[in-house]
Every structure is written in structure tokens, then in C-alpha cells.
Design goal:
Elements lengths: L1 H17 L6 E4 L2 E4 L2 E7 H7 L28 E10 L6 E11 L6 H20 L31 E4 L16 H18 L14 H11 L5
Parallel strand pairs: 5-6
Antiparallel strand pairs: 1-2, 2-3, 4-5
Helix pairs in contact: 3-4
């Protein structure tokens, strides 16, 4: 919205420099040009330079910047759907993600590459929370995990392959229909991972398992069920 203000001011400056009316100009990629005479134009670089000189329309302040405060009339929640399949080694408790499918909807997609990176990051952190991140304390309140040797920070070696997809449902509460991104795969990914692990034991009557689902905890569940022996 601030960029729209800048564009309006830039159009006024371009019209002044080209000595035409604002309505005689049209926008093309990086410049304003005179309708019917494209050779007559001013690029944004030229307009920005002129904005800091005295050659401006009467009463206009120097500079080509703007500030806008946007207060949406409602929230712009993203959403998604996540499906996970895991394989559990009942002798070691090790859990491997066989497949993870993520479909996200963040409304109008402004920069797809950045969105994809945000989705991957959100899913990777969800994976970390579900399978290893914990802050343990002893009975005296002493922190037992003081380094990244004790706190699970997944690298490319541990992180599963993500199968990503998207739908686009523009938000009616945003000027271009955009919503947030990255929080939805993080928030939705955690229970998806956890549900996949619990589901592996559902046929044995298990309905809940505490996170994080470390190999030791999962092995303890296998031992409690008597399925940890060959």
C-alpha cells in the first residue's frame, strides 16, 4: 500500500518532468511513458533522482518514500492439509518418515520461491518438535539440555523429503488477497507427525504418546506392548 502511494507520487513527478497531464501517462514495467509517444518517458531511476532536486511540482515534498499503516478488518489465516506415513523399527524405536505430503494455502502467492522455502522451513521445524526437541529439567529445576548436542536441530541428513502442493484462496481482508505463510505447516505438521506415530500402535489400543517421539521413547512403548523382541 505504501508502494501505491509512491507510484502515485512518481506519476506526478513524471508528468511534471515531461510537461504533460498525469492522465496522459501510462505505466510500463519500470517507467511512465506518454500515451501514443513511448519515446517520451521517465524511468523510476530518473524519477527517484528528480525527487531529490528542486524540479518538482509546486508544493510537493522532496523524496520518493511513503509510510502506510495497514489494519485489516479481520484476520488473514492461512491453512493447509498434511498427510504423513512413517515406518517404526520395533526393536530400536527408530522412526523414519516414508512420505510426507503438504498442501498449503496462503492466498495470493507473491513470490513462489520464498513461499516454498518458508513451507520447507516450517515443516522441518515441525519435524524437529515432533521427534526430538525438548527442554528437560531435573527435580531441582536444573536445565539438562545445555547445548545443541542435547537439542534436536535437524540437518539435511535427518530432514525428510517434502512433497508440497498448494491451492489459492485469496483473503477478502487483504488488498491483494495474501495471507501468512510458514506458520501453517509448522502448526499443522506437528500433530500430523505425532498422529502418524500413534497410528502405528493404534491396532494395539494405543491412543496417545507424549512428544517428542525419540527412538528411546518409542522403544519404551514397544517394550510396554511386548513387541520389542524378535
Amino acid at each position: 500500500m505504501a508502494a501505491r502511494k509512491i507510484r502515485v507520487k512518481a506519476q506526478k513527478i513524471a508528468a511534471h518532468l515531461l510537461e504533460v497531464g498525469e492522465g496522459d501517462l501510462e505505466w510500463e514495467i519500470d517507467r511512465y511513458k506518454v500515451k501514443g509517444n513511448p519515446a517520451q518517458s521517465k524511468t523510476m531511476k530518473e524519477i527517484a533522482m528528480a525527487a531529490h532536486t528542486s524540479n518538482l511540482p509546486d508544493g510537493m515534498e522532496k523524496g520518493l518514500d511513503a509510510t502506510e499503516y495497514y489494519d485489516p478488518p479481520n484476520m488473514t489465516f492461512p491453512f493447509g492439509a498434511y498427510v504423513c506415513v512413517v515406518d517404526i523399527d520395533r526393536f530400536t524405536g527408530e522412526t523414519k518418515v516414508r512420505r510426507f505430503y503438504a498442501l498449503d494455502d496462503c492466498g495470493t502467492r507473491i513470490n513462489p520461491m520464498i513461499i516454498e522455502g518458508q513451507i520447507h522451513g516450517g515443516l522441518t521445524e515441525a519435524f524437529a518438535v515432533a521427534f526430538g526437541q525438548a527442554i528437560p529439567f531435573d527435580e531441582n529445576g536444573n536445565h539438562l539440555g545445555n547445548s545443541l548436542m542435547d537439542y534436536f536441530l535437524p540437518t539435511s541428513m535427518e530432514t525428510p523429503h517434502w512433497e508440497t502442493d498448494h491451492t489459492v484462496t485469496p483473503s477478502p481482508h487483504h488488498p491483494i488477497g495474501a495471507k501468512g505463510v510458514a506458520e501453517s505447516p509448522h502448526v499443522g505438521g506437528i500433530p500430523c507427525f505425532s498422529n502418524a506415530v500413534v497410528d502405528a500402535f493404534a491396532h494395539l489400543g494405543v491412543t496417545h504418546m507424549d512428544m517428542p517421539h525419540t527412538a528411546f521413547r518409542v522403544w519404551q512403548q514397544c517394550k510396554a506392548l511386548g513387541i520389542d523382541k524378535r
